[in-house]
Amino acid sequence: MSACEDTQTLIENRTLDEMSVGDTAEMVRVLAMADIELFAVMSGDMNPAHLDAAYADQTQFHHVIAHGMWGGALISAVLGTRLPGPGTIYTAQSLRFHRPVAIGDTITVRVTVAQIDRDSGRVTLDCQCRNQHDKVVIEGQAEVLAPRIKVRRAATALPMVRMHNPGARFRALVDRARALPPLPTAVVHPCDALSLLGALEAEAAGLIDPFWVGPRAKVLSKAAEIGVSLDPAKIIDAPHSHGSAVAAVALVRAGRAHALMKGKLHTDELLEAVLDRVLGLRTERRLSHVFALDVPHHDRMLFISDGAINIAPDLSTLTDIVQNAIDMARALGIDVPRVALLSAVETVTGKLPSTLLAAAICKMHDRGQITGGLVDGPLAFDNAISPEAVAAKGIVSNVAGRADILVAPNLESANMIAKQLIHLARAEAAGVALGARAPIMLTSRSDSPAARLASAALARLLAAAAPVEAV
Question: Rounded to two decimals, what is the model's pTM?
Answer without folding.
Answer: 0.81
